[in-house]
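Just scan my protein:

. . .
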Amino acid sequence: MTTYLYEKDLVPQKYRILVAYRHDILVRQIATELDIPVQELRRYLIEHFDMILLENLPARVEMADAHADQDDPVALVLGREKYTLYLQIMSGAAMESIFHAVSDRVRAGTAMEDAIAYGRERIREELRR
């Protein structure tokens, strides 16, 4: 009989990472930005991220805040690079589709706030798939 050298179910450990002080602040910040419940975001992160990605979440957010989408205000507010390249919460293709839809709405005369709200709704839909 073979025994595992590690735990098969890492959910409790991943949850402990996410409720640690610094991680909890970041998860709450991201949940507020995307307007989704904190528990829903935690569940998504636990299901889709490995331990290393979860542990490095604060460093990734710091880098995203310093370097992501500095040249495009729509992309910056929407979080195009932040949520794809740095945090890897969603695929680049899905975010590019959302970004182009939001940019088209802004160019067509839709208020920036309304276009971003539309983009955030599409991001939430993508995360719930």
